[in-house]
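Limitations

Structures in this collection are predictions, not experimental determinations, and the ligand pose is part of the prediction. Treat each record accordingly. The example that follows, with 1,3-dihydroxyacetonephosphate as the small molecule, is included so readers can see exactly what is and is not provided: the inputs are given verbatim, and the output is the predicted complex.
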Amino acid sequence: MSEKIAVLGAGSWGSILANLLDENGNEVSLWSYNPEQVKELNEKHTNTHYIKDFTYSETLKAYSDLKQALEGATTILFVVPTKAVRSVASDTKAVLAELKTKPQLVHASKGIEQGTYKRVSEILAEEIPAELRRSITVLSGPSHAEDVAKRDITLVTAASTDLDAAKHVQQLFMNRYFRVYTNSDVIGVEIAAALKNIIALGTGALNGLGYGDNAKAALMTRGLAEISRLGASFGANPQTFTGLAGVGDIIVTGTSQNSRNYRAGDELGKGQTLEEVVDTMGMVIEGVATTKAAYELSKQRGVEMPITEAIYQVLYEGKDIRKAISDLMMREGRSEF
Ligand SMILES: NC(=O)C1=CN([C@@H]2O[C@H](COP(=O)(O)OP(=O)(O)OC[C@H]3O[C@@H](n4cnc5c(N)ncnc54)[C@H](OP(=O)(O)O)[C@@H]3O)[C@@H](O)[C@H]2O)C=CC1
Ligand SMILES: O=C(CO)COP(=O)(O)O
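Predicted complex:
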């Protein structure tokens, strides 16, 4: 299968997925709002700020003009940070109204919008009306760009309410090192993907403070329990949380130095302030904003999420991390399930 695909967002994940789609034989245009980055990608075939020591395919073309990138595309893949999805989708809508190409939409972003608590597929559906597009599919799972850049084995899931669309996306991305499953539970996949970043901030912080494997395993397991509770309140399929977008992504993000969220937590645990951590990362740390959205959402829906609440208090109310941990440990004993 070969298509013209526009990838919007040329950070670590967008650029590596664009390269993978190029390798799979597609004609890929990669859009970034940064002309300097576009120049580097087209002339040197590198993207050094985001992915070190990697040479991109020479047939991959980068654009800073959105219309040029979208022209002729039958699939559009959104991979910008969650906070940028609405504005990029709105700009895309204006171009699609002119082009009348009606592409399918895919996204690989992991977050929840501040204030509205919308999932990324909901934002896309709101901003790009059905007459200008086809289906919307979410691509998610345990997948650090750094490993995919090395063509290391990676398994993800493609979730859509339209099974044919999910199968189509599966075929576009699958290759010898990148295996894609399908899933119809868009709600569960998006909630799991967004909220695992909160837990990775937590396991990173435990690491920075010197805690061991038991503590991190405990946080990941009980973190997943509260993510599943929030998911259930939205009608998500409980099985999704045992799959690639759930357990899989908690493991990869909650244990890896490749994770921006884990690294951010690690630095917080070692005593840096949130401001210092955000300033020095130079890449998006989705878990920081998602912690706020998920905390507010849990209060709004009456879902108990003690770990999210503790991390919210540390990030947004200046609570001491050690005190937050001891408060969690001293909660009244209860049944596991
Ligand atoms: N990195 C990974 O391994 C994975 C990431 N993801 C998800 O993919 C999404 C993107 O992450 P990632 O690639 O890591 O992020 P990066 O920070 O590496 O890249 C994000 C890109 O989007 C650009 N950008 C920021 N704001 C805007 C805006 N308003 N309009 C247009 N472009 C903008 C950034 O430019 P600038 O830096 O100049 O602001 C940068 O080029 C996130 O939701 C993340 O959770 C999912 C799976 C794996
Ligand atoms: O989602 C990811 C891996 O699946 C990437 O996580 P980070 O944003 O923490 O790097």
